[in-house]
Amino acid sequence: MSTGINPRPMRSRTGRRALGSVELAGTAGSRSRREILDAAARILRSHGYHATTLRDIAAAVGMKAGSIYYHFASKDEIVAAVMNDGVDHVLNTVESALRLLPPAADPRLKVEVAIRSHLSALLEYSDYTSAGLKAYSDAPEAVRQAARAHRRRYEAIWGRLVDDLMRAGRSPPGTSAQTLRLAVLGMMNWSPEWYRPTRHSIETLAREFAALLVQAKA
Amino acid sequence: MSTGINPRPMRSRTGRRALGSVELAGTAGSRSRREILDAAARILRSHGYHATTLRDIAAAVGMKAGSIYYHFASKDEIVAAVMNDGVDHVLNTVESALRLLPPAADPRLKVEVAIRSHLSALLEYSDYTSAGLKAYSDAPEAVRQAARAHRRRYEAIWGRLVDDLMRAGRSPPGTSAQTLRLAVLGMMNWSPEWYRPTRHSIETLAREFAALLVQAKA
DNA sequence: GTCTATATGAAGATAGAC
DNA sequence: GTCTATCTTCATATAGAC
User: Fold this and answer.
1) Residues 6 or more apart from B76 whose CB is under 8 A from it?
2) Nearest C-alpha of chain B: how many angstroms from A26?
3) What is the per-residue pLDDT across A31-73, written as a single tens digit (0 to 9) for each?
4) For residue A198, how many C-alpha atoms fall within 13 Å in the half-sphere facing its CB?
5) What would the 3-class secondary structure string for chain B be?
C-alpha cells in the first residue's frame, strides 16, 4: 500500500512535485494547493495528526473532502508537505536573521538572535512550524522519514552555533556541545505547551534563554 | 454527554473510586484494573491518545474490548487515570529523592538530584509519566482539566527549587525564576523526543542540565 | 476543479448470553 | 468477569457526474 507521500507525478495544474515545496511565500504553485496547506497547518497545529481530518481541512477552504484529492494524493502527503515546509521556514527565518549580523558578532548575540527567530516562527508566525512539531511523533513512519533530512539540516545550525560558543570559551563549564544543543532545542520546542502571548514576551524569553546558554564575557 | 472521567460509583470489585488512584505500587485495587492501566500506559506512551484503542489495550491484557467496560466507564477515564498517576509518580520520585538530601545541601546538588529523578521517571521507569506527557495535549478538555491540579502540584516543586537557587544567589545572571522553571521543564520534557538509552546517560544529562541552571559557587 | 455518493474499515460504546 | 454481537459514527479514499 502506498502512503502517497513519495514524490510522483500529480495531476496538478502546475505540475510541481508534491513534496518539498519550499516557497512559503507562494511565488508559485496553485492557489488552492497553498490554501489547503495553510488550512491544514492551522488545524494540525491545534488538533494534531489524528484529530485533523480531510473534512475539516476541506471545510476550512470551502470545499468538500473528496475535492482535496484533486490536489493531493493522500492525507499524509499534506501532512508531510506541512511538516517539511515548517522546518524549512524556521530554518530560513533563523538563517536570515543570523546573516544580518556581522560575522564577528558576539556569540551571545548570535545565540540570542537565533533563539528569538526560532521562538517567533514557532509561536507567532508559522502554523507550519508548530504543526510540524506537534504532528511529528504521531505521523506514520513514512512521513517522519521524509521529514528527517529537513530536520537534520536545521539542527545543524544549532550545532554550529554551539560549536562557536565552545570555541569562544563562552559555554557554561561542565556542559558538552551535544547537551547544550539538546537543551536549547528542548526549552524552545516545549514552549508551545505553556506560552501565552499575553503573559510572555518572546524578546524577553530569548534574552533569558540565551543567558542560560552563554557565559558572560570574561 | 458524560465523558466518563468524573469520579462516580463503579461496579468494581473493590469499589475504589475511578480517578485519582495514587498507589502505583498496587497495594490495593483489583488486579485487572491495574493491569489495564499498565497496558494503557505502555500503549499511550508509544502511540499517543488517538492511536491508542480500547481493542489494543484489551488485547494487551488478554481481553476483548467490551470487557474493559466492566472495569472502566470510558476510554477517557482510563487516560485520565494514567495521566494523573503519571504526574503523581514523578512527583513522588522527585520528592523522595530530595528528602534523602540534608536540608542544607548545596542548591546545585538539589537541582541535579531533582533532574535525575525526573529524567529517570520519564525515560526509564514510568510508562505512566511519559504517557501522560504525550497524551495530554491531544486529550479532551475534560481529561486535561482533571490533570491540572496534579500538574500544578508537581510544578510547584520546581518553583521552590528555583526560588532556593535565586535566594542562594546561584541562578544565572539575567534570568527570572519563572523562565528558569520553564527552561528546565522544557529541556527535561522534550527529552523523550531524542533520548536513546544506548546513546545518552541520564546521570550525565542531569549533571550537565544542572550546570546550565546553577552558577558555580562564588 | 468541485461535487455527490459510496466503498471500506475502524473506532467507542452497549446489551445480553454465559 | 468476560464473551459475542451489534449500534452508531466517522475516518480515508475512490468513482463518476457536472
Assistant:
1) B3, B4, B5, B139, B140, B142, B143
2) 31
3) 789 999 999 999 999 999 999 999 999 999 999 999 999 999 9
4) 0
5) CCCCCCCCCCCCCCCCCCCCCCCCCCCCCCHHHHHHHHHHHHHHHHHHHHHCCHHHHHHHCCCCHHHHHHHCCCHHHHHHHHHHHHHHHHHHHHHHHHHCCCCCCCHHHHHHHHHHHHHHHHHHHCHHHHHHHHHHCCCCHHHHHHHHHHHHHHHHHHHHHHHHHHHCCCCCCCCCHHHHHHHHHHHHHCHHHCCCCCCCCHHHHHHHHHHHHCCCCC
CA–CA min distance B5, chain A (Å): 20
Question: Which of B195, B208, B209 should we substitute to test contact with A (largest number of A Cβ atoms within 10 Å)?
Answer: B208
pLDDT at B39 over 60: yes
Nearest Cα to A121, choosing from A95, A89, A146? A89
For chain B, the maximum distance between any two Cα atoms, rounded to a whole number of angstroms, is: 63
Among A173, A204, A209, select the one facing B183 at the smallest CB separation.
A209
B65 touches strand C (CB under 7 A): yes
Q: d(Cα A97, Cα A16) in Å, to the nearest integer?
A: 29
Q: What is the pLDDT of residues A83-109, one digit of tens each?
A: 999 999 999 999 999 999 999 999 999
- A121 contacts A24 by C-beta, under 8 angstroms: no
State the Cα–Cα distance between residues B100 and B36, nearest whole angstrom.
33
pLDDT of residue B29: 64
For residue B16, is pLDDT > 80? Answer: no
What is the four-CA torsion angle of A10, A15, A21, A25, rounded to 10 degrees? Answer: -130
* DSSP codes joined into one string, A76-127: HHHHHHHHHHHHHHHHHHHHHHHHTS-TT--HHHHHHHHHHHHHHIIIII-H
As a whole number of angstroms, the distance between CA A38 and CA A11 comes to 20
pLDDT over 50 (residue B18): no
In chain B, the residue whose alpha carbon lies closest to the alpha carbon of A213 is: B212
Count the neighbouring beta carbons within 10 Å of the beta carbon of residue B161: 23
Cell of B69: 467496560
What is the Rg, in whole angstroms, of the alpha carbon atoms belonging to chain A?
Answer: 19
Question: What's the rounded Cα separation, in Å, for the pair A28 and A30?
Answer: 7
Find where cell 482539566 sits.
B145
Alpha-carbon distances of A34 from A21, A23, B139, B208, rounded to whole Å: 10, 10, 29, 43
